[in-house]
Amino acid sequence: MVHGLRVSRKSRRVKSCLWVSIIGVWGTRGVGKTTLVKNLNNDFLKNVSSSKLSLGIVVWITVPKPPIDIRNIQGQIATRLNLQVDNEASVQIIASKIYQRLKEEKSFLLILDDVWKGINWDEVGVHQPVVPATSKVTITTSSLEVCRQMRTNVEMKVTTLIEDESWQLFVKNAGDCANLEHIQTLARVIARQCGGLPSAIIVIATSMRGNTRVGL
């Protein structure tokens, strides 16, 4: 497990993937992909710092639901880059400006969170292979097919927690009250009903924190 999340064995080899251009993090919705990417991002920043390297900029984009809105994605990137673009300009012109701006950085990290459908990198302004080579792109999605459509180099699957892991996370967020004799049986049932989804477990367990009574 990584920070309360379960990832496939392949995805645990994060350091060996350090110089891979595009990484896809996928798994069912609510399993904690966004949380995992945030934690990996922090670890990545520590690693490059210890290597006396530095990221020029980190760009986090929350991708809107379909239909795909390239202008929205370009607008978020442009804002993070402090790049002035003409809203009346074509997608191609804005993509060219984004590409040229990113080339000015020694390295960058671009994160596209919650991708529902494949996005054309060239239309956004991120050409493959990513230039410079030390730059990274990470996407999170519920679909392995989306990873393939976006030509990821490595796919990391985030899976649901097994029952014992779910209970440990539940207790961590609910507190000692979850282990009280008159509460534990019901609490374990509630934890199982969360289906191994960390986000659901955390929300429900936190709402029970400090409650020592059963019922209304």
UniProtKB/TrEMBL annotation:
Residues of the NB-ARC domain: 20-175
Keywords: ATP-binding, Leucine-rich repeat, Nucleotide-binding, Plant defense
One BP annotation, GO: defense response
Keyword ATP-binding set for record: yes
Keyword Nucleotide-binding: yes
Record-linked InterPro entries: Apaf_helical, NB-ARC, P-loop_NTPase, Plant_NBS-LRR
Protein name: NB-ARC domain-containing protein
Single GO MF descriptor: ADP binding
